[in-house]
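Lab meeting prep.
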Amino acid sequence: MNVRIIAGEYGGRIIEGSGTSRTHPMSERVRNALFNKIQSELPGADVLDAFAGSGALGLESLSRGAASAVFVERDRVAQKIIAKNIELLRAEDKVHLIRARVSAVRKTIDQQFDIIFADPPYYNPQLSTVASLFALLKPNGLMVLSYPGTDEVPTGAEVVVVDNRSYGNAHLVFYRKKNV
């Protein structure tokens, strides 16, 4: 299944979907609502796309003005598709693809991010791993978790939930890291 970049520099361009049944692509309707909500935070942002799948969230961020995107994906098929999509959009100079489990990312990355997208597989939401990503947020940074709505969302002393939205079976939780 192909995915359309909605707006910005790459707007209207078609990228390849994740190519694996182990991932669930976020619908265009949900992505559009998400990016309309966070648009003002994207220019110049450093973005982490955890559980990246096709890389659509990170690539949409770059299209809308983010400075850089780091993609983390463990599935080999999805990794190849992300690399192909990066090449298709000629975004190589703005991205880094980490071929690893998200649970190992804190050992791999020596960087903090303005925005983190956590879109784990719905069959295995890995909420403790998602909670560990809070440490990678810059002060006042934003993290968006997409989950099926059946589990209790993670919380942490360093973040506050600032919004919670539902779109059918897709639920988005927006976290803001506290200024310390």
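Slide two material, second protein:
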Amino acid sequence: MSTEDTGDDWAEAMAEQAIEEAQAVELDELTDTAAALSEDDVAKLDSIMDIPVTISMEVGRSFISIRNLLQLNQGSVVELDRVAGEPLDVMVNGTLIAHGEVVVVNDKFGIRLTDVISQTERIKKLK
């Protein structure tokens, strides 16, 4: 069996699982009650839209002494603080913004967001 067959089988299994897990949910109608932005506000917003940020996915963490760090070599295993199958943390500039799971699309790794941290929760974690 080639790796391409395995990837296609895996993608099909993930698609089947997504269909099985999908449930119809009734959503409240969203209404935009915010006032329209002035031209000055739009210009200010546009000025920050192109600022680059670093996005990273964190599988887990481990704290070890420098002595143990220097003893690591090829084949060493570092135990992380996560259980297998737990969602990854999606960090932007070191701030947790979401949780997700690894996916493979066109032979490249990606992440599917499963839970986005609300702005209120992020502010609470800063305090």
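Talking points for slide two:
The domain at 53-126 is CATH 2.30.330.10 (Surface presentation of antigens (SPOA)).
The chain is about 35% helix and 25% strand.
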